[in-house]
Amino acid sequence: MAEGIQPIFILPEGYNRTSGKDAQRNNIAAAKAVANAVKSTLGPRGMDKMLVDNIGDITITNDGVTVLKSMEIENPAAKMIVEVAKTQEEEVGDGTTTAVIIAGELLKNAEVLLDQSIHPTLVARGYRLAANKVQEILDKLKLHLDINNKEELSRIVKTAIVGKSTGADSHIVSLIVDAVQHVKSMSGKSDTLDLDDIKVEKKVGGGLLDSRLIKGVIIDKEKVHPDMPDEIKNAKVALLNLALEIEKTNIDAQIRIEKPEQLQAFLDEEENMLKEMVEKIKATGANVVIVQKGIDDTAQHFLSKAGILAFRRVSENDIKKIGKATGAKVVATLDELGSESLGEAGLVHVEKLAGETLALIEECKNPKAVTILVRGGTEHVVDEIQRAIDDSLGDLRSVIEDGGSIVAGGGSAELEVSKNLRDFATGLEGREQLAVNSFADALEVVPKTLAENAGLDPIDILVELRAEHQKGKTWAGVNLLDVYKPQVSDMYKEGVIEPLRTKKQAIKSASEVAVMILRIDDIIAAGKSANQQPQMPPGGMGGYGD
């Protein structure tokens, strides 16, 4: 700067600015730290994390997105990586850890290229080329399974939950597959699966084997009157989106009563109106009434005398599920209620579980909504089982909606895609070739991490895998199912399979966030107030590492 010229400040006091290589290095370091936080949870031999929040609540899990959501991450680049996990969870329901560690590895490899004075724009362009090519390669590699075959769907579920607390318990696997087969519906030429039709109800107590599939719906409600029956067999279910009460007028009104007889007549008339409501319900043949709004005390008495089991203030969401399970139609007025609008259930009863009274509508003939009742010794156990079920359901939805498109797991798909990417890179000219090769190297982090988490030598496993793939063994991967079997084997034959959509989305999300972070060369941030916590240091994340 020429002598005598004052520097010009364009940012107000308290703002920090990091630019050029420093900004890129900081962002890459933060991304790697996030990847390291979840790296050790990957695979069937992955370890769990114990997360303790600021009020002492504990979560024990090896679910990547749960770990990342629970951590109070402040670094902006690290937050972008967490968004990858959230997107993966929302789109396909599984593969969150895979997406995060691939993103971290892509940025780690990009750092090597930046050190060789390759411009970030060229690296980003190469990564985009590679990401597009990966989608093509995966489409060519995909296999198909029969989505109506229970045994083949079970293989998907076993792969999804084998690393969870449940292991690959055959009882839980069977419950999940049965639930999906009940609610799976045909829409046009392809099957669809609405996960809202499968309710997961958690109750502490008993053990894993006490979990069961309810062919219907569980609602957290008690019967409205103690004299009502505790169970109704061959139930005829009425669903009412109204209140069994005397409606109040919308305008101010006065009723002048001068004699006691007039008051009694008024009360008698109210009672007769409520009695008439119950008579209308009884005349349809309904013996179970589920109401979205309130039920007057007098109406409860008449329902009880009629032997009708009733529940009130049931949520709209539960009402819809009960309708799908029983075939009942929701009516808004009693005039609409008829025998044709009733649903059917083999059994409706109240049951006490873990000290709470629940209403179970079950044994429905052709339920399009079901409930998986999860039991376990502690709250942490049932929470982790639910996360395993959610992952499995996400995988099954992806496979069903994609017509059965799958790839083998155990890192075999990543190795095969990596091999094909290197072949693709040889046909490229310019420095993008180096970026495509770096992308191919990054994909190998999946089998490498699987081996590390199992206590195997990752270099030996990687060398052996590459040799197998060069021989044309497409689905050679890291076999961690049985300690007595070779560590490298055909993962498709071993029954380890994953949805194609999960794999495509993981690589797509990881590459997009890596490109976005690489293109940032300037970070302008407002200064922190004194009561805020300091930023996460670029080198790592306290307490977590690979």
From TrEMBL:
<dbReference type="GO" id="GO:0016887">
    <property type="term" value="F:ATP hydrolysis activity"/>
</dbReference>
<dbReference type="InterPro" id="IPR012714">
    <property type="entry name" value="Thermosome_arc"/>
</dbReference>
<comment type="similarity">
    <text>Belongs to the TCP-1 chaperonin family.</text>
</comment>
<keyword id="KW-0143">Chaperone</keyword>
<dbReference type="InterPro" id="IPR053374">
    <property type="entry name" value="TCP-1_chaperonin"/>
</dbReference>
<dbReference type="InterPro" id="IPR054827">
    <property type="entry name" value="thermosome_alpha"/>
</dbReference>
<protein>
    <submittedName>
        <fullName>Thermosome</fullName>
    </submittedName>
</protein>
<keyword id="KW-0547">Nucleotide-binding</keyword>
<dbReference type="GO" id="GO:0051082">
    <property type="term" value="F:unfolded protein binding"/>
</dbReference>
<dbReference type="InterPro" id="IPR002423">
    <property type="entry name" value="Cpn60/GroEL/TCP-1"/>
</dbReference>
<dbReference type="GO" id="GO:0140662">
    <property type="term" value="F:ATP-dependent protein folding chaperone"/>
</dbReference>
<keyword id="KW-0067">ATP-binding</keyword>
<dbReference type="InterPro" id="IPR027413">
    <property type="entry name" value="GROEL-like_equatorial_sf"/>
</dbReference>
<dbReference type="Pfam" id="PF00118">
    <property type="entry name" value="Cpn60_TCP1"/>
</dbReference>
<dbReference type="InterPro" id="IPR027409">
    <property type="entry name" value="GroEL-like_apical_dom_sf"/>
</dbReference>
<dbReference type="GO" id="GO:0005524">
    <property type="term" value="F:ATP binding"/>
</dbReference>
<dbReference type="InterPro" id="IPR027410">
    <property type="entry name" value="TCP-1-like_intermed_sf"/>
</dbReference>
<dbReference type="InterPro" id="IPR017998">
    <property type="entry name" value="Chaperone_TCP-1"/>
</dbReference>
<dbReference type="InterPro" id="IPR002194">
    <property type="entry name" value="Chaperonin_TCP-1_CS"/>
</dbReference>
